[in-house]
Structures are given as structure tokens and as C-alpha cells.
Design goal:
By secondary structure, the chain is α+β, with helices and mostly antiparallel strands. The chain folds into 5 domains: 104 residues, no CATH class; 300 residues, Aminoglycoside 3'-phosphotransferase, Chain: A, domain 2 (Alpha-Beta Complex), CATH 3.90.1200; 202 residues, Sandwich (Immunoglobulin-like); 199 residues, TIM Barrel (Alpha-Beta Barrel); 239 residues, Immunoglobulin-like, CATH 2.60.40.1180. Helices cover 28% and strands 24% of the residues. The protein is built from 28 helices and 52 strands. The chain starts with 5 loop residues before the first helix and ends with a strand.
């Protein structure tokens, strides 16, 4: 049988097909059929011809806009002898020309043999809870018996040849592309060792019609549960006789909850979209398909709309079509079958995570069916329903049952459509259920719903994800019910402006009071304990402090003021009883089961401070009256396994002094005095101005100083030295001082080692008023593994990348951020904006950019995973850096974003609109390494390394560079700058003076780490102050004085900074005199030009001729060899250009070039 004779084939099978119980368009005479594909299944014994015909169905009755694909297995047999009274052959469809018979495949052994031969076998789970499955070869197809009564598939029981075992072959009649949930769900449950599901033996898959890369499952073979009773028939029998069914129902509720737990572990849990949208859509579908629902349209729409006010519990994979007909009872236990989901729903929708309570709702609806068929009295139905719920809650006590009614209604509407299309006589059963559910809602919507004991238990323990739904005030029908948690209280009274209302202890520390009112009044809670009394505001009477738009922006990763909604915020609300002051807490922890606030204010017992999760955002929130600035706190996170862990607030704006780890509530009262600076900053491009940066580690510049002390001493010193900016090693809180701040645990909190956040503001303000800009080192590349901080924050890899080949930086023992996750990206981008706006910081130096850009950074082959394009670039990190830079420059005009990037990555300082990373400046690590390596050579040997000195000018204008002599160059055995210079004391000091002057006159901005300005003679250590006594000795004081004067020359000379990033600002005069170790070059800018001559030799060059661009007098404006600086006093004063061609120019001058010194000359005015 082939596709070529498909018109004849359709003509033969159409009458039988349209009457088949599983045909989804029986009521649509206009439905059209077509043959999509014919698949031959060879019978191993060649007794019959077997094929699988895939039939396309076009019908409005299916609810689908596309083609519905049906599976019709066919067997062609020789026709039996015709004669009067011939018994029909099982599964007979029609005769073919009188000599052949067409039979529905599942009814014939030939098809069963062919299916078993073609099926793909799978392995049984290695679990003692499941008996080993038999080999499919042991099955005897001649024993096949088709089950009657199935509505959407065809199942066949097949015994083994010895009769000891049986299997069930389920043939899917309505197909869809992709894996059938019957297969992956039962496989996962069996693999987990859950013994209450028949394990699969094998399945059969073929290509989806018209597709080269999609498949569809045609059927599955599973264990047959021998000796079991059908759950629905069992319930009907008990209903018929009014026999007690509570015990089995309790067990079934437990098993259903266990199944959900196993499925959650196997497939994971998501925050999920709210159920309301899907309910409304399906309600409209049912209303359009079943006209009998029309009288209840308004009530149905109101009921589904009301679901939007409920919190959305976590979603997961579920059974999807669970009812009593899908379960078997054997030996006082239950087995759950048929995981396909509701057959009228698309396969993709059936595999989508959903609310677990949908399965419980399905069982409850099935109880109504059993009661209706068995004619049970109302008390029987109520008892069985209650027992199902009780059993479920026994395993999952945290479950909020308020969605069950809405999901029951959803299920009943689905049943109404199904019965209307397939079993019209059964339609009254779901219609009665819909009527009852609507009437129950109408009776209860104006009165408080009773709270199940299990929910009260979870709320009292602080373990519920929506405590506000139980606690606080609830107004219904003129009655305000107020519940409050007060553990160990002896009495509780609700106090309003008009009266006191005594509360009654309800459960486990929960007290309840009621009062008549048409609106919720202001109230406070008066609590008596054995030895004290307290009057407090109720935290559960306040509206959420995080709005819907905030949650939307957080989920999108676009909240540019994230610190204003998450973390701890002091708030004040008006009240008729007096102002309510307190602190709102909000934290993102999407995978937490519950979150509590703990701190000094509740003696670190968070049972009365459980937070609520806001919709599907993963944001938890609570306002705690009475909590104020200075209070210590943490979040207590309940992880998926039920364990609790205390965590510091990721958004904390203040912390305890390390090694203590609590977060601290902070409220800024600082008033800035740097308005002129900030106004000028916004109107200025700092990249084109003078930039000499003094890099400072606050803890060791002078030990023991606070932010306020530094605002006096550091500001005075930096201003006197003439630096334009300070760059602070990371000031964000970090637990280990030895990390120098580069292992951050609180990204939004200035370290409390030196004072409060407002005192840090005072330091920045003082620097600005002194005309000094502030740059802060920022570390978005990685964070430490401290268990109390960001690491596995909600029990999962939340802030860190979950991929083990990307999520860890082994060199530093840290985690790498998940740069591709919206909320994590938002956390980092907003953090950059926080420092730039809240603390008026003028720039961020981004640490370890290279480790972010490359997936294989410091990783061997096999230790990293390529990106989606097969490359080594970290595409998500690149996007983060681009977004951070673009947003920072937009939000805070006049700031600088500086990259510490040590590779040749192109376009680091190219704007993002041209595909670059968008930084304003990049550290020139090549210049630093080459220069220090060159200067480490003895002067006599430097001629052989001259290229190292000049190479930086080859690429000097490819990026916008900062020349860094940073903290990294004076630690870990490298020695101080002084120590790295060869020679005696004088030579070392001269070498440092030479290095600094060469740096300041080279194209690029300048950065020097503290101590370098006076040539400290030992490495830096964060555990001690700089050697300030050394700086007062004449030789070292001379170096400092030289740099001080050089800074003033630098800022006053546009030639040294106006064209740092352009060839227009630099011109070689002499680049090739390696024999004399001399460089000569012009610096130019804004109409000014300076001649720089640098001698890296240890001897003076007398009468050294250098070309000049113009004639006349040239004045020496600076020399490192001045005696004031500890030099040898080789100076030039004024020189006159001579008409002596040199270096390709018409004029030149003769100079005395000092040993290991730099001379700077300017044309006389």
C-alpha cells in the first residue's frame, strides 16, 4: 500500500475513521482528510502487509489552525470465506475487492509483531523499586488484546510466551511533533526509582511529515500492572455502595504530591507565568464551543479574572490529565498512568511547566464523576475530596490551595468541551460541577476563607511564600479579619483610633481578631509577654514597596536605579495613630521556597518576618515597621531541599565592619557641596583634558585614618602634589583585606572599615571641592565563594554562571558572574550607575576585563566551552561591558570608563555604536611592561633593547590609553619602582625620576600608585602604611618635589594632554639613537609644542645636537636633573637654535643632556 493510491485509501477508511471514538472532529461533516505519509512495517513472519498511514485532518472542531495529524495503522489480510452469518474480524474496517480485508492494526498480531520489531528499546532504571523488564522478544503478539473504552489512544495488552508477564502497547492516535510526554515523564520517574509508575520498555518514533529534523512518537510499550483495579471503577463501586473511600483517597493524595516532588527534581522548577492568562484563554475557548455555558458566561469570566490577584506558585512538569481513570490500585497502593496530558491541548503546551495543583484539581473533578455515576450521597463526595487534599498537604504542607478552585473550574470547562465533542450524554456531569464551583465562589467571595491548618503551620513557622495572604487585614462583607504572628505572647490586642479588639490565639503563635468596618482602619498591635509589653505596627498591613513596572524592568534587566527598589530602604508613612517609620526589604531569590528577614530587631528569629514573593518576578518583599538606620540584618533563605541559610543582602548599602558579615540598614542624610564640580563635569569631556591619577589603597596610605581623616590629609596631599584625580582601589565591601578589595561581597556598600557611606560621600565631596576627580576600581568579572554572600544565593547558581566550564575563575578561587542573565546583568549595570550617581564618582576602572572577554582565559584545552558561534569570545560579557559603558556615559555625562585590559582585543575604546566595547580609556599594559623591562637593564646594555622603548609609539594611537604604574607592579616580589632600577642609590633615584618624566611626557594619560611619587624603597603591603619617614629624607623628597612640579607643568601645558590620542599630538625628532640611549620628540596641542629629550644612559651627553621645528630661543622649562630634585645639576637654561640642518630639519640646538634624565624645552615667547 503506497501514497500513490491515497484517494482510494481515504475513500475506504473515511467512514470508519469518522466514527472512531478517538476521531477529534466527529461533529464536523465538513472536515477534510488527506494522506500525508505511508510507512511500511514489515511483518517478520510475512503473514500480512502492515503499514502506518499518517492522515491529515483539517477541521475547525479541533481548535487548531493547522493540520491535525492522525495515526491509522492498517493490516491487509486475505478475506475469510464469505457466507451468511460470517462473524466480523476484530478491528475490521472494510473489504478490498472481495479477496482482502482491511483491519485496524492494533487488533492483529501481524501489526504487533511488526511494531515490536521496529521499536527502539530502552534500559530499565537501576532501582530496586522496579522489577526488571522483560525483553520485548519474549512477548507473544498472538496474545494481544485491545482495551475497550479508551477515548484518545488505543492500548493493547501483550503477554510473554510463558504467560508470567504482560506489557501494554499504547498506540498514539493524534500525533504532534516532538517527544511525547508519556515517554519522557515515565522514563524520568522510573529512573528516579519512584515505583508508582509503570516503567517504559520501548517506543517507536518516525519523522514528522514534511520535516527533515522533527520527529513524532507513534507509540510506547510499558509494564502492565497485573492484579490492579482501575481507580475510577473502584471509586464508582464505593460510591454506589456508600462505602468509605477516605483511606484510598488519602493515599492517592500523598502519591500525587510525591510524584510532583520527583518531577520537580527531575525537570526543575521555574518561577513560571501566572496561571490567570491561560485560564482566561481556555475559558473563552470553552464558552465558544459549548453553548450550554452561555448562562454562566459572566460568572465564569469573573472567576477566571479573580485568579490574577493571587500569587503564582512555582511551576513545574506535571501529569496534566490526572483523574481516577489514570490510576490503578493494587495491594493497598496506587500506580499512576498515562502522562500524555489532556489530548485536546497541543503537545507543546502539554510539556510546558504548569501548576502542580492542576493535577489535584483533576482528581477532585474525577471524584465528582465517580459520585455522579455511582449515585453517591453528598457526604461521600465531600469526605473523599477532603481526604485527597489532606493527603496531598501531608507531603507538601507549604501548598497554597486557593488556586485549586480556579483550576477545578478550568478542568470542568475542558471536560465540558470534551464531553460535548465525544460523549454528549455525559455533558451534564461537568456542567453540574461548573454550577457548583461558581455558586461556591459566589457564597464565599464576600467572607474570609478559612485557612487550612497546614497553611497556618507554614505561616507560623515563617515558611510560606505568600504570608500576606493570611496575615494582616482582610476585608470581606463588612468584616475585617486581622491575623498577626506573635510567638510567646500571652495576649494580643488590635488597637485602632477608636477601640481595642482582643485577638484570639488561632494556631502556633498566630492571633486573630475581627472588627466590623467598611474599610481597613489604621491599627497597631499591643502584645503582652510574660515579662514585657510592646506596641508595634503590623508589617503585613502594608502594600508592596516594589511596583509592577519595577518588577518588569528587573526581569528585562533594564532597571537603571535598582538600588532604589531592592535592598533595605527606610520609609515613613502617615497614619492616624502617628507616623509609621520602618524599613522595606526586597531581594531577588527566584528559586527560594521562602525568605525571612532576620536581625537585631527580631533577635535573629525570622518567623514573624517572612517575606512575600511578588508574582513570578522572583522578588521577595516586606516592610518592617520600627526597623531603622544602623540596624543589622540578613536574609534567611529556604532552599529547595528545605534547608535554611542566612545571606547578606546583595543590595546592602552598608555593612558591618569585617570580619563580621551582616548587612546594615542605611539612610543617607548627606548634603553635597560639589554642585560646581558636578555642573562642570557634565559639560566637559575628561578624556581630552589633563589626567594625572594618584592610585590609592585607603587602608595603607596612612593606616588608621577614617574617611573624614582622609578628607583632610589625603585631599591636602593630593592637591599639593598637583594630581588631577585619585583612583581608589575597590572600596566596595570585601571580607578579606588581603584581596585589596578585589573580592567583593557587597557591591553597593562602601567598606565600613573607614566609616559610613555618608562619610565616604564626605571624602568624595572634599576631593571635588579641592578640584580633584575620583575614580574607583570596579570588579564585575568575578566574586568570592563566601557562603554568606552571593555564592549560590538561593540554593542555586543564581549570580554565578551555572556552567562549570564558565562559572569559576580558578586562578582567584572565585565565581564568574552569569553575564547573560537579565537580572544579573541589571545588578552589575545598575551598580556602575550607583557609584557614578549616588557617590558622585567621576570614573570607574574596570578590573580584569581580559578575563571577561575570553572564555579560555587562563584555561587549558577541555576546560572551557566555546560560544554559540564556536569561538572563544564571551559574547554575554561583551554585551554587558557595552551596555554598562553606553549606559554610564548616557546617565552620567562627563565620567570616564577605564578598562584594565591586557590583551590586543580590538576596539576597547571604540564607541559601541561602531561595534567597540565603548570604554573611554584603556590601560596600556604593553607600554608599562616594555618600559620597566628596559629600565631594569644596566644603562650600558640598554642600546641592545632600544626597540622596547620605542615600540609603544607603533600602537599608541590605536586606543585611548592610560599609562599605568599601578599597585600590581610593586607587589609579589616584583619590587618597588626604586628597587627595579639598577645601580647605586643615586642611580636608582635618577631612574625613578626618568621613568616618571618619560611617562608624563609620553602620549596617554598618567597613573601612579602611591609611594611611587617619593620612590619608596620597598614593596607595597596592604598591612602597613607607606614609608612616610623615607619621603622626608632629601633624596626621596627630591623625587616627590620633581613630580609635584612636573604635575603643575603638565596641567598647564596642553601640548602634553590635548592630543594624547592622535598623531597630531606627537612627532619624533630622534627615535633611533640607541647607542646614546636618547629619545627626542615633540608634544603638541592647542597651538603649543614642547621638545622632550630623554637620556636613558648613565652619562651626560655634552653638546648633543637635536633638531627643532623653528628657530629662535628655546627655554628649558623642566629637567629631572635639577639639584632641587637630587639631580646632578646638568641644566640648559635658554638655548638658541642654529641654522644647522639636523634630523631632516633646517635648525637645531646643542644641549647638555643630563644622565638618566629628561629635559623639556619650549620655544621662547
Amino acid at each position: 500500500m503506497t501514497a500513490q493510491n491515497s484517494p482510494l485509501l481515504l475513500e475506504l477508511i473515511s467512514p470508519w475513521l469518522r466514527e472512531a471514538r478517538w476521531f477529534p472532529a466527529k461533529d464536523d461533516p465538513a472536515a477534510t482528510l488527506s494522506v500525508l505519509e505511508v510507512i511500511d512495517l514489515p511483518d517478520p513472519l510475512e503473514e500480512a502487509a502492515c503499514t502506518v498511514v499518517l492522515v491529515g485532518l483539517e477541521s475547525s472542531a479541533t481548535g487548531s489552525t493547522g493540520t491535525t495529524v492522525l495515526q491509522v495503522p492498517l493490516v491487509v489480510l486475505p478475506a475469510p470465506d464469505a457466507g451468511p452469518g460470517r462473524a466480523p474480524v476484530p478491528g475490521e474496517i472494510t473489504t478490498l475487492g472481495g479477496d482482502s480485508l482491511l483491519v485496524d492494526g492494533p487488533h492483529h498480531p501481524a501489526f504487533l509483531r511488526a511494531w515490536l520489531a521496529a521499536a527502539q528499546g530502552i534500559s530499565k532504571p537501576d532501582s530496586a523499586d522496579h522489577a526488571d523488564s522483560a525483553d520485548m522478544a519474549e512477548l507473544d503478539p498472538t496474545t494481544g488484546r485491545v482495551h475497550t473504552g479508551e477515548q484518545s489512544n488505543t492500548s493493547v495488552r501483550i503477554d510473554t510466551r510463558d504467560g508470567a508477564r504482560s506489557a501494554i502497547l499504547k498506540v498514539f492516535r493524534v500525533l504532534a511533533p516532538g517527544a511525547n510526554p508519556e515517554i519522557d515523564m515515565t522514563s524520568a520517574l522510573a529512573a528516579a526509582g519512584w515505583r508508582h509508575v509503570p516503567a517504559p520498555w520501548g517506543w517507536f518514533t518516525c519523522a514528522w511529515p514534511g520535516s527533515e529534523d522533527q520527529t513524532t512518537d507513534l507509540g510506547v510499550l510499558t509494564d502492565f500492572v497485573a492484579g490492579a483495579e482501575d481507580g475510577f471503577e473502584l471509586a464508582c463501586a464505593h460510591a454506589r455502595d456508600d462505602r468509605d473511600f477516605r483511606g484510598p483517597a488519602l493515599d492517592l493524595g500523598r502519591r500525587t504530591a510525591e510524584m510532583h516532588t520527583v518531577l520537580a527534581e527531575a525537570f526543575g522548577v521555574t518561577s513560571g507565568a501566572h496561571a490567570a492568562a491561560g485560564l482566561r484563554e481556555r475559558a473563552q475557548w470553552a464558552l465558544s464551543a459549548v453553548e450550554e455555558l452561555t448562562p454562566w458566561r459572566k460568572a465564569i469570566e469573573e472567576a477566571t479574572d479573580a485568579v490574577g490577584n493571587l500569587p503564582a506558585p512555582p511551576a513545574q512538569r506535571i501529569h496534566g490529565d490526572l483523574h481516577l481513570g489514570q490510576v490503578l490500585r493494587r495491594a493497598e497502593d496506587w500506580f499512576i498512568l498515562d502522562f500524555e496530558g489532556e489530548p485536546l491541548r497541543p503537545l507543546a503546551e502539554r510539556s510546558t511547566p504548569d501548576q502542580p495543583l492542576r493535577d489535584l484539581a483533576g482528581l477532585l473533578r474525577s471524584v465528582d464523576y465517580a459520585a455522579a455515576i455511582g449515585g453517591a450521597p453528598p457526604h461521600w463526595t465531600a469526605q473523599v475530596r477532603d481526604s485527597l487534599v489532606e493527603g496531598y498537604l501531608a507531603e507538601r504542607p507549604e501548598t497554597d490551595l486557593r488556586l485549586v478552585g480556579a483550576l477545578e473550574l478550568d478542568k470542568a470547562l475542558y471536560e465540558a468541551v470534551y464531553e460535548k465533542q465525544n460523549r454528549p450524554d455525559w455533558l451534564p456531569i461537568p456542567l453540574e460541577g461548573i454550577r457548583r464551583l461558581i455558586e461556591e465562589q459566589a457564597m464565599t467571595q464576600n467572607t474570609p476563607s478559612p485557612v487550612p491548618e497546614q497553611v497556618l503551620q507554614a505561616v507560623a513557622a515563617g515558611e510560606h511564600y505568600a504570608p500576606h495572604d493570611v496575615l494582616g487585614p482582610h476585608l470581606a462583607d463588612g468584616v475585617v479579619t486581622i491575623r498577626t504572628v506573635r510567638h510567646l505572647a500571652t495576649s494580643v490586642t488590635i488597637r485602632t483610633a477608636d477601640a481595642d479588639y482582643p485577638a484570639v490565639h488561632e494556631y502556633g503563635g498566630i492571633w486573630t481578631a475581627t472588627l466590623l468596618a467598611q474599610e481597613v482602619p489604621d491599627y497597631r498591635v499591643h502584645t503582652s509577654y510574660e515579662d514585657a509589653e510592646a506596641v508595634t505596627d503590623d508589617p503585613y498591613r502594608f502594600l508592596p514597596t516594589v511596583g509592577e513596572m519595577d518588577r518588569h524592568l528587573i526581569a528585562e534587566g533594564r532597571h537603571e536605579q535598582l538600588w532604589s527598589v531592592l535592598g533595605a530602604r527606610v520609609r515613613r508613612y502617615p497614619s492616624t495613630l502617628g507616623e509609621v517609620a520602618g524599613t522595606s526589604f526586597a531581594v531577588w531569590a527566584p528559586n527560594a521556597r521562602a525568605v525571612r528577614v532576620v536581625g537585631d530587631f527580631n533577635r535573629w528569629d525570622g518567623r514573624g518576618a517572612a517575606m512575600r514573593v511578588l508574582g513570578s518576578s522572583g522578588v521577595w518583599e516586606l516592610f518592617l515597621p520600627g526597623v531603622g538606620a544602623g540596624d543589622r540584618y540578613k536574609f534567611e533563605i529556604c532552599r529547595s531541599d528545605g534547608s535554611w541559610e542566612m545571606k547578606a543582602d546583595p543590595m546592602a548599602r552598608a555593612t558591618e565592619v569585617p570580619p563580621a558579615t551582616a548587612s546594615v540598614v542605611e539612610e543617607s542624610t548627606y548634603s553635597w557641596d560639589d554642585r560646581d564640580w558636578m555642573r562642570a563635569r557634565a559639560a566637559t569631556d575628561p578624556h581630552t583634558g589633563p589626567l594625572s591619577i594618584y592610585e590609592v589603597h585607603l587602608g595603607s596610605w596612612r593606616q588608621g585614618l577614617s574617611y573624614r581623616d582622609l578628607a583632610e590629609q589625603l585631599v591636602e596631599y593630593v592637591q599639593w602634589m598637583g594630581f588631577t584625580h585619585v583612583e581608589l582601589l575597590p572600596v566596595a565591601e570585601h571580607p578579606f583585606g588581603g584581596s585589596w578589595g578585589y573580592q567583593v561581597t557587597s557591591y553597593y556598600a562602601p567598606t565600613s572599615r573607614f566609616g559610613s557611606p555618608d562619610e565616604f560621600r564626605y571624602l568624595v565631596d572634599a576631593l571635588h571641592q579641592a578640584g580633584i576627580g575620583v575614580i574607583v576600581d570596579w570588579v564585575p568579572a568575578h566574586f568570592p565563594k563566601d557562603a554568606w554572600a552571593l555564592a549560590r544565593f538561593d540554593g542555586t547558581a543564581l549570580y554565578e554562571d551555572p556552567d562549570p566550564l564558565r562559572g569559576e575563575q580558578k586562578d582567584w578561587g572565585t565565581y564568574v558572574f552569569n553575564f547573560g542573565r537579565n537580572e544579573v546583568r541589571n545588578f552589575l549595570v545598575a551598580n556602575a550607575l550607583y557609584w557614578l550617581t549616588e557617590f558622585h564618582v567621576d570614573g570607574l576602572r574596570v578590573d580584569a576585563v581580559a578575563s571577561m572577554l575570553y572564555l579560555d582565559y587562563s584555561r587549558e584545552a577541555g576546560q572551557w566551552r566555546p560560544n554559540a558561534r564556536g569561538g572563544r569570545e564571551n559574547l554575554e560579557a561583551i554585551a554587558l561591558l557595552q551596555e554598562t559603558n553606553a549606559t554610564a556615559y548616557r546617565v552620567a555625562p562627563g565620567i570616564m570608563m577605564i578598562a584594565e585590559e591586557s590583551t590586543a582585543w580590538p576596539g576597547v575604546t571604540t564607541p559601541t555604536e561602531y561595534g567597540g566595547l565603548g570604554f573611554g580609556l584603556k590601560w596600556n599594559m604593553g607600554w608599562m611592561n616594555d618600559t620597566l623591562r628596559y629600565l631594569a637593564q644596566e644603562p650600558i646594555n640598554r642600546r641592545y633593547h632600544h626597540g622596547e622603548l620605542t615600540f609603544s609609539l607603533v600602537y599608541a594611537f590605536s586606543e585611548q590609553f592610560v599609562l599605568p604604574l599601578s599597585h600590581d607592579e610593586v607587589v609579589h616580589g616584583k619590587g618597588s619602582l626604586w628597587e627595579r632600577m639598577p645601580g647605586d642609590l643615586w642611580a636608582k633615584l635618577a631612574g625613578v625620576r626618568l621613568l616618571l618624566a618619560y611617562q608624563w611626557t609620553h602620549p596617554g594619560k598618567n597613573l601612579l600608585f602611591m609611594g611611587g611619587e617619593f620612590a619608596q624603597n620597598c614593596e607595597w603591603a596592604e598591612s602597613r602604611s607607606l614609608e612616610w619617614g623615607l619621603s622626608d629624607t632629601a633624596p626621596h623628597a627630591g623625587v616627590r618635589e620633581m613630580l609635584r612640579r612636573l604635575n603643575h607643568l603638565y596641567t598647564a601645558s596642553p601640548a602634553l594632554w590635548a592630543e594624547d590620542f592622535s598623531h597630531e599630538g606627537f612627532e619624533w625628532i630622534e627615535a633611533n639613537d640607541g647607542d646614546h640611549n636618547v629619545l627626542a620628540y615633540l608634544r603638541k596641542g592647542r597651538g603649543e609644542q614642547l621638545l622632550v629629550v630623554a637620556n636613558f644612559a648613565g652619562t651626560t651627553h655634552e653638546d648633543y645636537r637635536v633638531a627643532v621645528p623653528c628657530g629662535g630661543e628655546w627655554t628649558e622649562v623642566f629637567t629631572t636633573d635639577h639639584s632641587d630634585f637630587g639631580g646632578s645639576g646638568v641644566v640648559n637654561g635658554q638655548v638658541v637654535a642654529e641654522e644647522v640642518p639636523w634630523h631632516g630639519r633646517a635648525q637645531s640646538v646643542l644641549l647638555r643632556v643630563p644622565p638618566m634624565g629628561v629635559t623639556v624645552l619650549r620655544p621662547a615667547q
